Amino acid sequence: MRRSINKARAVINSNSGETLIEGIVSILVFTVLIATITVMINVSLRISSRAMDSADVMQKSAVAVLAGDVTNPDIVISDDYETILVIDGTTVATVPIIVYRADWFLSFDPK
């Protein structure tokens, strides 16, 4: 019994443990991991920022087209279109329309 107690005291009182090199290596590994995570977060923020800017431009363009905003320079306005309603081969009505378009969006109003 006394031998077990002496062994336990020897382990508790021993000076062996981590060396300075082990501590420096663990700090270096931790630093590399934190730097990698920081770079990944910055890249994802940059990508999401570009996507938000692009979506904002497209949304403003869509709203301008749907509203028929003639003051917006990005909108092409054409007023030489007509819709023709044909029933059983007979033209029933012809309605002139104004077409507003910008990139991927299209809208029209009757004149």
Explain this structure.
This protein is 54% helix and 28% strand. The protein has one domain (2-110). The chain is rod-shaped and about 115 Å long. It has a 3-stranded antiparallel β-sheet with strand order 1-2-3. β1 (76-87) and β2 (90-102) form a beta hairpin. With 111 residues, the protein is α+β, with helices and mostly antiparallel strands. The chain starts with a helix and ends with a strand.
How do the strands line up in the largest sheet? 1-2-3
Shape: rod-shaped
Strand content: 25-35%
Output the number of helix runs: 2
Entry keywords:
alpha+beta, 111 residues, 28% strand
In short:
By secondary structure, the protein is an alpha+beta fold. Helices cover 54% and strands 28% of the residues. It has one domain.
Strand and helix layout:
Layout: H1 2-13, H2 20-67, E1 76-87, E2 90-102, E3 105-110
Antiparallel strand pairs: 1-2, 2-3
